[in-house]
Every structure is written in structure tokens, then in C-alpha cells.
Structure of ATP-binding protein:
Amino acid sequence: MAVHEFHRESLAARTARHFTTGVLQTWSMEDVADDAALAVCELVTNALRHGLRHQAIHPLPVRLLMFRSYRALLCMVTDPSTDAPVLREPDYVAETGRGLQVVAGVSQMWGWTRLRPVGKAVWAGFTAEAAGYR
């Protein structure tokens, strides 16, 4: 398992991408690194933008957690908000609002769940071609 915490950082998306690709290189899962890094970037951005909206009420950080098995990867981002993520119809003119469309497009599956006592986890799953343990 790999974990990274984010607070309101201006370079969080870049940090998330670099962290993800570094972990996946260590885990010999480079074949899913581009897609996973893109999904993680979108999930972290959404969590910081929407999940920390009520941070004064629930002062919890955004966390990126990555789990792996032999060929599977699960990337999960937690935040203190209980608001459900909304998969919108793509608006190709808008500058924002397509993050979950991107996640759905690059991952084998994605979803979310509420956490107790507060918060939620939004996740994306990937299958690697020939990942191995080191």
C-alpha cells in the first residue's frame, strides 16, 4: 500500500501524478501508470476542489491510497465531504466538469462510498498486463 496526504496545495495534481508514477514504477506496473496517473490527478483535483469545501467543519486532509495485487491496482482518494461525486454529461465547451468522465474512460471501473463517521472515498480500478512483485 502507498499513501500520500494533500492539503490545499497549488501543485497537488502534479504531485499526485509524480507520486503515482513513482509508486507504479517501484511496483513494476508501468503499463497502467499513464492511465492511473491521469485518474488520480482528476480524483485529487476533485477532492481538493469539492471535498474540502466544508473543511472548517471537518478538518481532514485529502488522502491518496494505492493498493495492488498481482495484476490489479486500486487508487482511492478520500476527503471529508459526504457529498456524492456527480458524473456529468460532458460539456465540450466548458473548461471544467469532465473529471469523472476522464476517470471512467481510463479505468476498468470506478465508484465511491461514504466513510464513517464522515467523508467519502472515490476510487478507480486498473488491471495490469504483466505486473510482478519486487
Summary: The CA atoms of residues 83 and 113 lie 10 Å apart.
